[in-house]
Specification:
478 residues, Arc Repressor Mutant, subunit A, single chain, 3 domains, two-stranded antiparallel ribbon, four-stranded mixed beta sheet, mainly alpha
Amino acid sequence: MKESLRLSLSQKLQQRLSPLQMRFVRMLEMTGPEVEEEVRRELDDNPALEIADRSDSETPEDDFHESAEEMQLADYKDDDEIPAYRLEARNSSRDDVYYEPVAVAGENSLGEWLMNQLRETDINDTELLAAGYIIGNLDDNGYLTRTLPQILDDLAINAGLELTMEQLGAVADRIRALDPAGVCAYDLRDCLSLQLKRLEPTPSRKLALEIVDYYFDLFSLRHYDRLGAALGIDRDSLREAIDVIRSLNPKPGGIIGDSEADVRSRHIIPDFNVEVDGDSITLTLLNNIPDLTIEKSFSADAESFSVASTAASRKDAMAFVSRKREDATDFIDLLRLRQQTLYNVMAAIVRLQRDFFVSEDETRLRPMILKDVSRETGYDLSVISRATAGKYVSTPVGIYPLKFFFNERVGGDDEETSSREILAVIREIIEGEDPLHPFSDDALMKELNDRGYEIARRTVSKYRERLGLPVARLRKGI
C-alpha cells in the first residue's frame, strides 16, 4: 500500500464587508425613529460623543423664547414642588387646540372580554376553567382553531379535568351566545349562521339563514340562478336575502380591542416631505436627529493628562480616549453618509416621477425600477433597495411608501406604459362593467387592446389579482 503527500495551491477571490460597512448597511435600513433611538443609545454609551451646541457668539442676543409661565416654573427647586394647578392649567386661548393625552393600555383583549362576560353569569368554576381553554383556542377573528375533541383531551391531560363531550359542548354554546355575535364559530358558514340567528325575524332573514345553512356552496360560488331555482324564489327576494348576508361581519373578533386610543396611536412617521408650488418641488429630509460632535476633553492631545499619573495609566487612558474618539468619529460619519444617501435616493425618485408629484395623478407614474435610480445616483442596487425599504414620503395629498413609485414597464424597454397605468385602467373597466355580465380576462384583454394597451391575457390575470379582484364568475351580481 503506497502513501503519498501532495501539495496544491489554489487561488480564491472573496469580497467581505468591513464592520464599518456592515454598520452602515444596518443603519441605512433603519426608519427615522429607529435611527433616533440609535443616536440616543450611542450618546449614552460613548462619552466622546455629544450634541453640538451653538456658541455664545453664534447666538443672537434677542434669541430668547422662554415664556413667562416657564420662568415662573423655573423658580421651584424641582418638579415635586410645582403646584398641581400650574401643571394642569390651560393658559391659552379658547381657540387653541388642546391635545388630550392618549392612554393606550386599557382595552380588553378578545379573551378577557369573553371571560368577563362569563363571570357575570351563573357559570361554575369547572365550566369557567373549560371555557378558558376554549377561549384560549380562538384566533384574533374569533374562530376556533382546534376541534372540541382536541380541547377535551387538553383538559384531561393538562388540567386533569374529566368532562364529557356533551358538557364541553354546552360550555362552547355558552361562549357562542356571548357578544360579539358569531364568536367561537367553527368556520365562516357557522359564523354567519350565528349572527343571523340573533337578528330580528323577517322573511329576508329567514331566507338568508336557509341559504347559509343549506346552500352555502352555491352562494359562495355565486351561482345565483341555480340558487334561486333551488329556493323557488324570484330575483328580488334573492337580492334582499343576499344583502342581509353581506351586512354581517365575517371577522367578529376583530372589533374587540380596536379602541379609539388604538386608532389614534397608530400612525406612520414619514421620512421625507415634498412640497409643490406650481412647477417647483421642494424636498426635505425629516428627522429629529441632532448635530453631533466630539466632546472637548476627548479631542485633547496626550499632554493634557496629569503629570503625576504613571506611564502605564497614561497609556491606558490615551488608548481609551483614542478608541472612543475614533468610534464617535465613525458614528458621525456614518450618520452623515446615511442622511446624504437617503436624500440623494429620494431626490432621484422625485426627478424621475416629477409628473406624479406635480399632478398627484397615479396614472402619471412612469416606469421606474431600481436600475433607473442607480443610474441617477451611481449607488449599487442593494443600497437603493435598503434606502427605500420601510421609508415613507409626505406629499400635499397623502403619505406614500417609497416602494409605491417603483413599477415595471409593460412591454419592451422602450415602452413608457407603466404597470400602475394598466392597473388603473383595469380597475376603471371593472368598476364600469355590467354586474350581470362581468368581463372575463379575455374580454378585459380585448378592451385594453382597443384602448391601445397591447398586453397578453395572462398579464391581465396577474394585474387583476394584484388589485385583489376575483374572476368574472365571482364578480357576478344579481
